[in-house]
Amino acid sequence: SVQLEMKALWDEFNQLGTEMIVTKAGRRMFPTFQVKIFGMDPMADYMLLMDFVPVDDKRYRQVTYAFHSSSWLVAGKADPATPGRVHYHPDSPAKGAQWMKQIVSFDKLKLTNNLLDDNGHIILNSMHRYQPRFHVVYVDPRKDSEKYAEENFKTFVFEETRFTAVTAYQNHRITQLKIASNPFAKGFRDCDPEDWPRNHRPGALPLMSAFARSRNPVSSPAHQ
Amino acid sequence: SVQLEMKALWDEFNQLGTEMIVTKAGRRMFPTFQVKIFGMDPMADYMLLMDFVPVDDKRYRQVTYAFHSSSWLVAGKADPATPGRVHYHPDSPAKGAQWMKQIVSFDKLKLTNNLLDDNGHIILNSMHRYQPRFHVVYVDPRKDSEKYAEENFKTFVFEETRFTAVTAYQNHRITQLKIASNPFAKGFRDCDPEDWPRNHRPGALPLMSAFARSRNPVSSPAHQ
DNA sequence: TTCTTGTCACCTAGGTGTTAATAT
DNA sequence: ATATTAACACCTAGGTGACAAGAA
């Protein structure tokens, strides 16, 4: 069995409509897809991998009211499917004991919109919705292991990790939640760093408090 | 068979008497021990590892003449041997094909003088000389593989990678060669960055030209 | 108008030798 | 006198969203 790490954060993003940036060079996901794994044979070899499947066959577009607060509309049929690449966890293959003894993190996985990418990144269509999937493949030591491929892998889907691929954020709340929760975006926070641990209530959507103190609150006039 | 990478650089250091810093937290080696490997069975599994053996059973000490240009003296018998740790290359185990298709770099290996280290670093005695060794272990698929341990591994020693473990550099030329050749020490270079590619003659000890232009040349009075 | 691209300042994360203080 | 330690400035390396310019 598999347990999604940082589920509370994923839920918070999912509630707003998660967006993931895709770039030509490749962009990591945030939150990072991380899992804890249970019940493997400690001595057996496994490959761990991810792929991404379209949630629907729609293309989306964005509408803007009065400079902000825009929302998604269906823009028509999906674009032609991208090459269906998979991302093997770089530690693959490894023993079950190795996989289970710590959190497995797919932080090397990158998303791109470059159909000709030759860096092995996952290719996605911008403005389309995707469902990440996690696969565990048992490395069968038998000679004719190909025949047992069906029974030697198991797939796990966490619906809260669905997202829309974008080249630029569409929902300002997503931007603010990313800034509040991704350490690499700390440069865009404008709350007092000392303020953060004090206001942090462990139970209830802690990161949204940072959002409330964010750079461009909806309630105050924008400075443009 | 195994080929040492950056052999020219190793030779240049070795000629001066290579020193490697050891710290409590652990310090990487520079140059990094890197090899190209040939002749493995592409489909077989191998473990790659390194260890460090004393070159002699001596302890060294340093004497200083007129503020600089010091040299090594034997200071007596070696201190009690440190725990004989080994460092497994983090990609171990992997297939021969994987190991052979690119340079294998031991850049995660760190040296420490902390006898109680619990980070898995290599523990060495400061002021002692060591010989790095590189071992290739064939992962024998037979049940009673322990019995064949002797024939299932091969050791490679490159004498030009010998070094003295130190807590601070003793030979100023070593310091300058490290500064000239280690990208992370670029902050201590004082030569014109544009000057470097121009004066670079591909044949003859290129890094020594940087040393000649170094911060504290022997020929000019030290500013203390 | 909507979407994409490239550049940028600002971060995280961590590898350098220097230096001053301390230990032996 | 010699050896070790810890803090530090200055790097490499690379992950952020902002922004302006360009493309569709």
Automatic annotation (TrEMBL), chains A, B:
Query: Among the entry's GO cellular component annotations, what is one?
Result: chromatin
One MF term in the entry's GO annotations: RNA polymerase II cis-regulatory region sequence-specific DNA binding
Q: Where is the T-box domain?
A: 4-190
**Protein name according to UniProt:** TBX1 factor
Q: Where does the protein end up?
A: Nucleus
Q: Which organism does this sequence originate in? A: Aramus guarauna (Limpkin)
Key words of the record: Developmental protein, DNA-binding, Nucleus, Transcription, Transcription regulation
The range of the complete sequence contained here reads: 18 to 241 of 335
Ranges of biased composition (kind: Polar residues)? 216-224
Q: Which GO terms describe its biological process?
A: anatomical structure morphogenesis; cell fate specification; positive regulation of DNA-templated transcription
Q: Which domain of life is it from?
A: Eukaryota
**Gene name per UniProt:** Tbx1
